[in-house]
Amino acid sequence: MQRKLAARPSLVITGCNGQIGFELQRYLAQVCRVVALDRAACDLSRTAAIREAMRTIRPDIVVNAAGYTNVDKAEIDRELAFAINGAAVGVLAEECVALQSLLIHYSTDYVFDGNKQQPYVETDTASPESIYGKSKLAGEEAIARSEVRALTLRTGWVAGAHGDNFIKRILKKSRSQQTLSVVADRFGTPTTAPRIASVTADLVRKYFELEDKRSFPFGLYHLAASGQTDWHTYSVEILTRARAQGIALRVQPEQVIAVSATEYAGVAPRPRNSCLEAKKIERVFGIKLPEWKIDVHRVLDEIFQHVRDE
Ligand SMILES: NC(=O)c1ccc[n+]([C@@H]2O[C@H](COP(=O)([O-])OP(=O)(O)OC[C@H]3O[C@@H](n4cnc5c(N)ncnc54)[C@H](OP(=O)(O)O)[C@@H]3O)[C@@H](O)[C@H]2O)c1
């Protein structure tokens, strides 16, 4: 007798051209059938577009890597930030409930006010000061209010070889400007997009392997590398490695000027401390995140290769 083959599980990625979305495509393709949606295919500011995409594809898992991520611009573009980071997440949750699908969503260290002296844990009270942080908290709350089976993964200081980020801006400035000033009193932990994607793929594998999906430990988790740095020290690390790899610089690592956030204020307030402790994900899933420099060095080497190819 011929055995009926079970349909290969499917997974949708929204925001597939972002830093995390791009890496998710690479890592998840090995795990299941992936449908990658960019803004044109599923615009999160349009409820009808979200519902139509989900009802047509009927995925087993939705990984929401789309977001309004410009922290300063969000201060003047409040409505759109809340629509994409808040309301749209609620709509995705509703669709996932109807389909009995898992929703994986990314949130941010910027939901905290930064006044804690130690790394933040999942049970700490979120109290964002920026519109971006508030809109991301609205997304977390929409999931918490819903019956959806979800993993909300908070991360921070994301860096990848694809897309725009702090590493690329520092490299560009140090190659084009005469001087470079960087904030030294804002602390966090760089976590790379490939690491976030590979952890997400591990979680997806674990979910698919589980017979009784209801027993999966859904919930809120911090997904961040270990250790901490500040933006100035991080810049020095980037430029030291760039110089060692033969990248021409106008501003040398020792010449980067350390300034206080009050001297170099962006439009949006940013937390003084936004380090996240990731012990829960290790305890529950056995996933241990490495020290931040290990992954950052890999991303740097990929970025330097692109710089050499330019
Ligand atoms: N970057 C960080 O440091 C950081 C830190 C903590 C948490 N996160 C969270 O991680 C997630 C992904 O971040 P990322 O760094 O990968 O961001 P990113 O590189 O800025 O990518 C965001 C993606 O969202 C898409 N997008 C924006 N508006 C959209 C809309 N209306 N409809 C559909 N797609 C839309 C963008 O599309 P286009 O390509 O068309 O612009 C882009 O592909 C976000 O939820 C973010 O809040 C990021």
Can you tell me the CATH topology of the domain at 10-165 and 189-227 and 273-291?
A: Rossmann fold
The secondary-structure class comes to alpha/beta
Helical content class: 40-55%
Largest sheet: 6 strands, parallel
The largest sheet has its strands arranged as 2-1-3-4-5-10
What hetero molecules are bound to the protein chains?
Answer: NADP nicotinamide-adenine-dinucleotide phosphate
Mean pLDDT reading? 95
Distance between the termini: 58 Å
pLDDT < 50 stretches: none
Tell the overall outline. Answer: globular
CATH 2nd-level architecture of the domain at 10-165 and 189-227 and 273-291: 3-Layer(aba) Sandwich
> What is the radius of gyration?
20 Å
Number of helices: 10
> What string, H for helix and E for strand, traces the elements in order?
EHEHEHHEHEEHEEEHEEHEHH
Give a quick precis of the structure.
The protein is α/β, with parallel strands linked by helices and 310 residues long. It is 42% helix and 15% strand.
General description of the model:
The chain is built from ten helices and twelve strands. By secondary structure, it is α/β, with parallel strands linked by helices. Helix 1 links the parallel strand 1 and strand 2. The termini are far apart. The structure holds NADP nicotinamide-adenine-dinucleotide phosphate (NAP). The site of NADP nicotinamide-adenine-dinucleotide phosphate has 24 residues, from helix 1 and strand 4.
